[in-house]
């Protein structure tokens, strides 16, 4: 049996409060934190990222979800377009998919050559070692979902107009290439699950547990401490100097749609 909604929401709020503390530590200490979210389609990456970032300052913590590379980017060194999204001092970057596209969808769907794929597997550990040696805190999470749960989530997206945008022909293709993606993931782990930058696997058939487990692990893996915040006191409102607000009739107001709904 999964977590009850009350237990889940209570613990999520506690963890999100700690994430805010982590953010302030990163900002004050000038740390650089990169969190990579990878996994199969519908594994729960997006929902987890949403909860992690929900209460964070977007000027400190940003989400990097890169689109399909341009023709120019296709001619660059593969890692080049990801490098420009890495954090500066005092920043957090959450990669909603990352350079690991080459080891997954590009490899399975034939969007890269076998030589490019093998070059990636050789270069990726070196690239990540460089990041870590330069002081970047790198955390990599693989969200693991079973084939049955993935198919059920796809089905719900097909039927839900609010989630339909999450589905693409590429997503549906992953259903018929389950074993190919499994082999690609296993090969990727062999080469990139390193001492410098290990993979952390998040079992995500239960979305609520996955979100809590991933967030709790991230917090436990970073040596952050509480940062003393400046004391803030609301100043007294000054006395009026005679300002009068212009008539509302001079402005174009948004129609009161809410008033048409009633209270029933």
Can you put this structure into words, describing what you see?
The protein is globular, with a radius of gyration of 23 Å. The protein contains 10 helices and 5 strands. By secondary structure, it is an alpha/beta fold. The chain has a 5-stranded parallel β-sheet with strand order 2-3-1-4-5, sandwiched between helices. The relative contact order is 0.17. The chain is 45% helix and 12% strand.
Q: How is the main sheet built? A: 5 strands, parallel
Helix vs. strand class: alpha/beta
State the end-to-end distance.
35 Å
- How large a portion of the residues is in β-strands, by DSSP E? 5-15%
Structural key phrases:
single chain; 264 residues; alpha/beta; five-stranded parallel sheet; globular
Helices and strands in order, then pairings?
Elements: H1 5-29, E1 32-39, H2 45-53, E2 61-64, H3 71-74, H4 80-83, E3 91-96, H5 105-109, H6 114-133, E4 137-144, H7 147-159, H8 169-176, H9 178-192, E5 199-203, H10 207-221
Parallel strand pairs: 1-3, 1-4, 2-3, 4-5
Summarize the structure.
The protein is of the alpha/beta class. Helix content is 45%, strand content 12%.
